[in-house]
Amino acid sequence: MKPIRVMSIFGTRPEAIKMAPLVKALARREGVESLCCVTAQHRQMLDSVLDIFQISPDYDLNIMEPRQTLSTITTKCLLGLEKVFQEARPDLVLVHGDTSTTFSAALAAFYGQIAVGHVEAGLRTYDKYSPFPEEMNRTLVGDLADLHFCPTQANRDNLAREGITKGVFLTGNTVIDAMSTTVRPDFRFSTELLNHLDYAGRTVILVTCHRRENYGQPMANIMTALRRLAEDYPQVELVYPVHLSPVVREAAEKYLSGHDRIHLIDPLDVAEMHNLMARCAFVMTDSGGLQEEAPALGKPVLVLRRETERPEAVAAGTAELAGTEEEEVYALAARLMDDPSAYQRMAHAVNPYGDGHACDRIADAIAYHFGLREAAPQAFCP
């Protein structure tokens, strides 16, 4: 019997982190030919993940250009993937989450009448401009997809409210699978500063802030609050791997440079980020992925956004919405440092996102869809 050709497509660092273990899991499956195509929407940060997981893409569109726009990303993906699909002829295209690559790849597959599987399906804020453009990307992909791999029950419920009930599987999040291979107690960082921080004696806070909807005043508010924390709490060490976006870099330099306990460093690869997260006290972030990763390591998360498409962590108590106003961001971080009981409640809450077997469930669901196994996979239950 001819193997099922499954092509995983991704283009950014967050997608790659979550898709890499799935690409490898599919490659181990009998009856499946696992192909990988990258758009390189983010070239440098993507390549570091490919190196760590030892993945060599079968196709590389290499679309990234200076100050690229959403329109150029989408157009170049559509045109490039049309040619890739004509050559590779996949039976199923897998996309992840909510990036412009994700939407473009799903649309290109639809144009080619190729089945689409959506990994990390069903996340919603129900505000089409926040996060932008991610909320509409994932919503539109939900309409295009044939298979929907939901990390949580809440995600599956979101799809059901939209009338999507067929081909839906509750799997957990693949990022937990990825972390099982990256976090090590003997890990050494390539950024030498990180090897010498006093993680036990100081309060090391990992910070990321880069989302488009935080550009401008929200980012200024957040960074002003961060500087106040460093100035008011002498035990604090802020570590901020600064996104390559010129807008983010200019803001970080303006508001945070020149303080000896605020460390503005270059972006970290996935293994370094996971190991830094494992050693820090807590995380302050506007990233979606870190809201899932940090709870798996017992680290409280303050979400630097007005809403989140990952409400499970907030409901479980592992994360709290800090918003983008200076006073609220400062107050919530200060509480975690001043109130040990508040910290412990967040650190010991149950992680709702996965058990390290999401990739196996997705591979089983694909096999079930194509008739390679009789039973659907057991649903993930936290």
At a glance:
The chain has 382 residues and is an alpha/beta fold.
User: Helices and strands: which structural class?
Assistant: alpha/beta
Count of runs of 4 or more consecutive helical residues: 16
Arrangement of strands in the largest sheet: 3-2-1-4-5-6-7
Integer average pLDDT: 95
What's the shape?
A: globular
**How far is the N terminus from the C terminus?**
37 Å
Number of strands: 13
Give the proportion of residues in helices: 40-55%
**Main sheet characteristics:** 7 strands, parallel
**Element pattern in H and E:** EHEHEHEHEHEHEHHEHEHEHEHEHEHHH
Work out the strand percent: 15-25%
**Uncertain regions: pLDDT < 50 for 5+ in a row?**
none
Radius of gyration using CA atoms only = 20 Å
Structure commentary:
- With 382 residues, the protein is α/β, with parallel strands linked by helices.
- The chain is built from 16 helices and 13 strands.
- A seven-stranded parallel sheet has the order 3-2-1-4-5-6-7, sandwiched between helices. A six-stranded parallel sheet has the order 10-9-8-11-12-13, sandwiched between helices.
- Helix 5 (134-144) links the parallel strand 5 and strand 6 (147-150).
- The relative contact order is 0.13.
